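Propose amino acids for all 316 sites.
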């Protein structure tokens, strides 16, 4: 993990604040989070685990309060620092495992017969064991060159077994299928929050190239005007449609399916407006007190569709 030995000497005048506008060529935009990977980081990103280990970018590149050009990803933080060995500015992974306080005191090197632990390996340089599925994942995904050395033993945090390395944290999910039980923890998110950085940096941005933004998911929120109603009348219904980055989706087709005791009725609502909202009136009559009317909202646009449920109760 070359970054862990790098020197963070940065020439602030090279960057001048948020850098995205100055790095348009070769932009790689991720609509899943609404952020573009800085071209200066792209090759490093690909060679250090890519999406599978580092996750999606959750900010664009920006200059942090210390004057370092950085970009946060779900599981990591890439910094643009001066590498003495290379004699130039290079991308490097920040040691988030260390910065998040995951380190523990080194253990003494094992002596015979304690040096024999099947399924385990002791790293003398950092004084910690890595065992079983943690070791399997660690060694098969780059080992010390990518993750840095272990800086803790396995331990329990928030009721889950974890282990810290210089750059990352690995979490064990025993409930997951075999082969997918070890996951890289979202230290990028956690470190961003802990540093108290401007939350606006997490907001989705528009791609610099036309057509770069696309819908990958619909997220729905519904509401009714009167959760408790009489036996007859008109129920006002609302549906808000947003995308994977909580941006409003205009022009979605919306169908309401209402399940009454005497049958199912459908109501076509107007297409969502510029704010992603649609509303309508659902007439009903003759409901006995205590009747629960179940509602299903279906939203469709392009190849995407999503559904959510709501209800209201007749009480008098």
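Proposal:
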């Amino acid at each position: 993990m070359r970054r862990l030995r790098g020197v963070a000497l940065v020439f602030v005048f090279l960057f001048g604040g948020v850098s995205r506008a100055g790095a348009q060529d070769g932009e790689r935009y991720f609509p899943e989070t609404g952020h573009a990977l800085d071209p200066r980081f792209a090759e490093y990103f690909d060679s250090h685990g890519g999406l599978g280990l580092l996750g999606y970018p959750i900010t664009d590149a920006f200059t942090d309060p210390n004057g370092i050009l950085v970009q946060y990803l779900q599981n990591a933080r890439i910094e643009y620092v001066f590498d003495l060995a290379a004699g130039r500015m290079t991308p490097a992974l920040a040691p988030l495992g260390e910065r998040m306080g995951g380190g523990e005191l080194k253990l003494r090197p094992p002596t015979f017969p304690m040096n024999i632990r099947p399924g385990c390996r002791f790293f003398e340089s950092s004084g910690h064991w890595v065992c079983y599925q943690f070791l399997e994942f660690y060694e098969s995904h780059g080992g010390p060159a990518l993750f840095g050395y272990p800086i803790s033993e396995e331990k329990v945090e928030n009721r889950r077994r974890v282990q810290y390395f210089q750059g990352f944290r690995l979490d064990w999910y025993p409930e997951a299928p075999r082969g997918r039980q070890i996951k890289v923890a979202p230290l990028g998110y956690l470190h961003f929050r802990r540093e108290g950085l401007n939350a606006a940096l997490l907001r989705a941005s528009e791609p610099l190239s036309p057509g770069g933004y696309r819908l990958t998911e619909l997220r729905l929120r519904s509401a009714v005007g009167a959760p408790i109603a009489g036996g007859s009348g008109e129920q006002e219904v609302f549906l808000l449609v947003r995308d994977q980055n909580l941006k409003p989706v205009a022009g979605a087709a919306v169908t309401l399916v209402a399940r009454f005791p005497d049958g199912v009725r459908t109501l076509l609502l107007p297409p969502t407006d510029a704010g992603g909202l649609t509303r309508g009136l659902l007439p009903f009559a003759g409901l006995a007190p205590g009747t629960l009317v179940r509602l299903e909202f279906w939203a469709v646009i392009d190849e995407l569709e999503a559904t959510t449920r709501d209800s209201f109760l007749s009480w008098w």
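Helices lie at 39-47, 50-54, 96-99, 132-140, 143-147, 187-195. Residues 2-95 form one domain.
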